[in-house]
Request: fold
Amino acid sequence: MILVTGGAGFIGSNFVLDWLAQSNESVLNLDKLTYAGNLGNLRGLEGDARHVFVRGDIGDAALVARLLAEHRPRAVINFAAESHVDRSIHGAEDFIQTNVMGTFRLLEAVRAHWLRLPETERTAFRFLHVSTDEVYGSLAPEAPAFTEQHAYEPNSPYSASKAASDHLVRAWHHTHGLPVLTTNCSNNYGPFHFPEKLIPLMIVNALAGKPLPVYGDGLQVRDWLYVGDHCSAIRRVLEAGRVGETYNVGGWNEQPNIAIVKTICALLDELRPRADGQSYAEQITHVKDRPGHDRRYAIDARKIEAELGWRPIETFDSGIRKTVQWFLDHTDWVAEVQSGAYREWVQVQYQGAA
Ligand code: NAD
Ligand code: DAU
Reply:
């Protein structure tokens, strides 16, 4: 069995679904079910005994210790986090609690468990920490992409909290010998993406006839990776990554935000044309920029390719088309996640501009 934390969130639920589609090894899924956690993502696993769901906090040391002792997973994959930069700007408390304190408590519980394992199990055990390219800070337009050697220069409360968690993971290996692996990935997109993030927000707002709020000039650059490719990278690192190493994961697909938004509009124009014959691009509005907005991220993913033979399968064209189609096909899921709490967030963040 493996223990997945945050397995009801966007990437975690895709990971659990992919894992169980490809392997018979069970998953113990520990998730607090914050606003971002959604058991509806895992509906396809109802009645599947290989998926054991526990609602709980990675920072609950007693719970984690009990789960580890009871289920004896051979690996822990830590997705659980507060993940939205804009929310971290409005209030960082939950980010520090989960991303920093939660990771610390999880590491301590896992270390105590790992130390008690018989030698063969202890040697095979892995703690894989899922992190982000945002810990490296912002790149100048022509600067080379982030390699694993790039200094940590986090700029947002979110990225600072993730950087802190990465450092804790590193220290638990260096000092305590815990067999850890860390992945730093670029922006994901795909099914079950919560519509507070750029791509799903633009799709659902476009279809609802609402403004498409582009921050500032829209020329900030991100590297986009289809979520299924992130999941395959994590599986590969877990399988063959060298203990103590960090692997950057990316899609070789840098694009300015405005280009992403225009691509989404063009796909919707084709797949679900507006009744008035106009383009969805008419709905684009430029709004106030994000404070401290990082201008550019780019991932150099040569290490994971050279060492582990991983490369993304989806191109951006194929991945974004699948994603737009998924949202068109899953209007019930969208309606379900747009609860009162979601509407409150949209009001706080966009104040009527979206
Ligand atoms: P998400 O916000 O969609 O999901 C996070 C999940 O963690 C939710 O199910 C939530 O309920 C759960 N959770 C939050 N606090 C918890 C706690 N204290 N204990 C247990 N569960 C808790 O996030 P995501 O986009 O799926 O990201 C998953 C991980 O991948 C995060 O660590 C994030 O930093 C990292 N990451 C995300 C991206 C991206 O583009 N989304 C890219 C690179 C790395
Ligand atoms: O790079 C990896 C990171 O990608 C992950 O670690 C984070 O968890 C994930 O949320 C994501 O962070 P970003 O801040 O890059 O993602 P987001 O979708 O919030 O924004 C993408 C870009 O689009 C960013 O430059 C801000 C911009 N944006 C976003 C929203 C929500 C807009 O212009 N308008 C918007 O309404």
